[in-house]
Write a structure and sequence with these properties.
62% of the residues lie in helices and 0% in strands. By secondary structure, the chain is mostly helical. The protein has a single domain, classed as Cytochrome Bc1 Complex, Chain D, domain 2 (Orthogonal Bundle), CATH 1.10.760.10. Helix 2 packs across helix 5 and helix 4 crosses helix 5. The chain is globular. The relative contact order is 0.18. About 14% of the residues have low confidence. InterPro entries: Cyt_c-like_dom, Cyt_c-like_dom_sf, Cyt_CIE. Keywords: Electron transport, Heme, Iron, Metal-binding, Signal, Transport.
Length: 96
């Protein structure tokens, strides 16, 4: 019984570690300081016109820009614990 409980606990931890983070929480923690309008070159959350040309580049390119840094954006966009899936979710959320 104890082995089964330990296995269930371990699998639960593994699943939680791979779960995507909440895009709004990531934005508020790491992205908002630039994407709320304080940095003129950073597309503002919800500004459809500003996001159109960027979305046309494709999600892979946008995630690469976040991961490696691009123009004024620092590498990893200040979210050191974000995965590529987290970046995709935040980009999609910001571009709505």
């Amino acid at each position: 019984m104890n082995k089964l409980a330990l296995l269930a606990f371990t699998l639960g931890l593994a699943a939680a570690a791979n779960a995507a983070q909440d895009p709004e929480a990531v934005f508020n923690r790491s992205c908002g300081m630039c994407h709320n309008g304080q940095l003129p070159t950073a597309p503002k959350k919800g500004d459809a016109a500003a996001w159109e040309a960027r979305k046309a580049q494709g999600m892979e390119t946008l995630v690469k820009h976040v991961t490696e840094g691009f123009n004024a954006m620092p590498p990893r966009g200040l979210c050191m614990d974000c995965s590529a899936e987290d970046y995709q979710a935040v980009i999609t959320w910001m571009a709505k």
